[in-house]
Amino acid sequence: MMRAISNRLVIIIPYLWLLFFFLLPFLIVLRIALSDLEYGAPPYTPQFSLADGWNVIWEKVGQLDFENFGFLASDSLYINSYLSSLQIAFFSTILTLLVGFPLAYGMARAPSGVRPTLLMLVILPFWTSFLIRVYAWIGILKQEGLLNQLLLWLGVIDTPLEILSTNKAVYIGIVYSYLPFMVLPIYSTLEKMDESLVEAARDLGCTRIGAFWKVTARLAVPGILAGCLLVFIPAVGEFVIPDLLGGSSTLMIGKTLWIEFFNNSDWTVASAIAIVLLIVLVVPIVWFQNAQARAAEAGR
Amino acid sequence: MPSLGSIRRSFEPWNDPAAKPYISFKNVTKRFGDFVAVDNLSLDVYEREFFSLLGPSGCGKTTLLRMLAGFEEPTEGEIFLDGQSLKGVPPHKRPVNMMFQSYALFPHMSVADNIAFGLKQDGMEKGARDERVAQMLKLVKLEEFAKRRPDQLSGGQRQRVALARAVAKRPKLLLLDEPLGALDKKLREETQFELMDLQQQLGLTFMIVTHDQEEAMTMSDRIAVMDKGIIAQIGTPAEIYEAPNSRYVADFIGSVNILEGAVVSSDDAHVTIKGGDGEIVGALRGSKAPADGKTAWFAIRPEKMQVSRSRPENVDNALEGEVWDIAYLGDMTIINVKLDSGNVVQASMINRSRLVEDPIGYDERIWLSFTADSGLVLEG
Amino acid sequence: MTRRWSWFNITSVVVGFTFLYLPIVLLVIFSFNESRLVTVWAGFSTKWYGELFQNQSILDAAWVTIRVALISASVATVLGTLAAVALVRFPRFRGRTMFTGMVYAPLVMPEVITGLSLLLLFVAINFARGFWTVTLAHITFSLCFVAVVVQSRLVSFDKSLEEAAQDLGCPPFQAFMKVTLPVILPAVISGWMLAFTLSLDDLVIASFTSGPGATTLPMKIYSQVRLGVTPEINAVCTILIAIVTTGVLIATILNKRRAMQHKHT
To answer: Which fold has domain C56-228?
Structure first.
């Protein structure tokens, strides 16, 4: 009997925590997305209170509506923000893949004594602050920044490039900040790969490049997929990078949500934005969950 | 009174009507979902026996062992140890110790601490504990390795630590899961005899799970050959080898030739069957002969056949064929002979002489002869 | 298995690491800049560090941040380890799919969503925003990272070790504490360090869930940055980088030393 209870506790404790602090909040966001804006604290109506009888509660439930969602659909700002976020996240993911894959591949092919050091070197920037690393790029990408100074000095350009406060800076920022998330899954997949598979392919007639495409790249797909999802999904809702590196014309939904909430104090619209964002991301999130669960099963 | 094999046995509690079994499986079934791992199995093992569960992967032998250790509970049936039911008793409360296939040595503890682990659990005092650990180290000849960690030991050494840890608590019953699987051939042979000596010295009951028939044959008092969750046959190594009860058992242990035929006649001790190679007379297994006309199989071991160039006189059985394949193994030679019917049988000869004037060669026509008691007629 | 490192490989690794480290290096260099600019070098000076230590609001923020990180990392490690054990050891229980979903989702969930939803929860239950709300929020999202790290170690853990302990007389809970936990401890510690860093670094969730008197360092840095980039901020960043780097290096050296010990005869 005791054994069964203590067994259950292992599951119950984190389960309850997550139910209360993860699931419940989402339900609350949904409820607020259906509410109306009000002045006061908290700035939405209707307010439910424990003192209400069932009739009052039912009446208040009737006041919930999809008005906020309709508002989102009607204002092009929001639609553009969503589309722009998806676009930026998508292309950033591809760029990150292009930068990250050769790095991961090079690391996986390194002599085995060097590999742990390389791994540590990739992880180290991850331990240092995200904010700091994005901030570092401000100094580099500014009009008077170090990149422009370098290019002017080299004579490559005549006038300073305007990179900061444009979408280009956001791309650079996302690639830079999320690079470890792309490199690590790819590296760990490649590292486990059996070298003799490539040798077998070449023995059977493949050129070196051919063997790479047909064997190595194919086997790396789970790692590539994990890396891409780990970059794409958070990038869609990214706030810090577009805020610090992007300009006023950079539309990203994370920034829009923030402005809606902190600047406009419109909790209801902010909640609606969050719900729609979740819906947009549901497919990739579930995809990611399945990939993770499958990987965990395979590891058993 | 003729007996099976060439060894006389003195330890035979299973033949003693007064002896009570030490371990008893009564109608035990184990299901994992739809899969039946153990099917209504009953088994008695006696004290001080060296008992082997032998069978291919998936036959249920490991499941049986784990049920005895307490890591699985039977879906149906009950297991008794020394008269007490083990139902609902968790592994840490059973007076049984197990030696795991992977050895399962605790990597963060030294050899001495590994061995002392179970003793500490029992609350043994430090002085007595240290003495017992020293005793165990001496038993497995690892005295200088007390302070080492498992990852600093070789495979054979790790195996001995696992053994020492398992017997440290002097359990009445020791379970061993494929104990010699990870060792190379030479080490395996040495360890087989060491294990047998250890068992005798300590007076323990051993139950081993293995897929290696040679291992089972060497070490066991009795073997249970398992097949898909049931016991095909229990017996001493000699009984299993010389009197298998089915083609499955005959085929599982060692090499065997099986020739199919229909029963022609029978008497108290022998059965004659007729197949593609003519009539063959074999020993009757059991007391009741199969009916005339029924399909039966004649099973004979390669070493029981005599090889000669001409048909010998006064023999019960003789088959003629062509030498198809020869394998020279040093101590013996194995010949595959293709009979005129198309069946291929295997005969083996011990190379008694160092120099042979005219050895048998490929494609020669030779005769294989054997007595009526050399092989069995099996019904299943 | 020999791996041959081609020129292409070496180049891509070098380029990759340069890309990763150059901005950080530049940031550190300019924290020692004499002038107020972060783009033109005017000479070496440590005056910004001096100014930093006079800046009470930054020091307060740092203190809050460290306390939040310590508490949330420790609680998250316990909860995350429990969650990992639940996922690995109990293949079938009611609501397992939802549980798995809740554990993996925060890994990729955009922080604005997590932050907003937690704030709304605190408002709904009338919990005053401040130190504890930030801590609770950090515990929630970092426990998932701990769970993933510990789970991947637990999956490759040889279960027969725990069975052997039970076989030798250890009740199940003790077997876990005496055998399993010590062996997976490096992963649990990695999980703790990960949770600590995530908390130390978090801006978005803290912004949503914090309250008066509980401004965290990232929040402070962010608000300063909006006003303009100054070497003082570079100085703060450099110190943080130094602390984290030292921590990681120590951890790596300790790990290597333990590995060496095991090789000793």
So the answer is: MetI-like fold (1.10.3720)
